[in-house]
Amino acid sequence: MSTCVILLIVGAAAVPFAAIIAAVAIPNLLESKKTASEVEAVISLRQISTAEEIFKLRYARYGTFDELQQMGVIDISITQATTPERARSGYYYSLSVAEDSWSCTAIPVGLGSTYSIDQTGSIRTSSKPRILIERDKEDSSSRRW
Description:
The protein is of the alpha+beta class. The chain has one domain. It has four helices and four strands. It has helices at residues 2-59, 65-71, 76-79, 130-133, and strands at 91-97, 102-108, 114-118, 123-126. Strands 1-2-3-4 form a four-stranded antiparallel β-sheet, with helices on one face. Strand 1 (91-97) and strand 2 (102-108) form a beta hairpin. The radius of gyration is 22 Å and the shape is rod-shaped.
């Protein structure tokens, strides 16, 4: 009987200890996942920039996602990630193309920074809530990656 009591006490002490470990580990894991998603979004924007420059060299204009994909200069997983439902690693992409310019925005599905790039190759970021981003895009901070 005393063995059962000891096991019960040890088990009862282990539950709070496990809860403390989880309370520390889970936020760190979530932050790491968020950071990895943001890095992947920046890498995808760089790939889009390279694809646009290759397309422009060949056709003397910038291309749409479909055209970039058909030319084979960009991965289909990026070109299809155009809605929150089809997001790639927590981000979806909005590409605007004109004859002499283009811009692409990586938009997080949940929390996270929004990133954008254009024909200059500069990546800009904004950590503002998405509701505010549409109202004042030009107010976003710039950061070179």
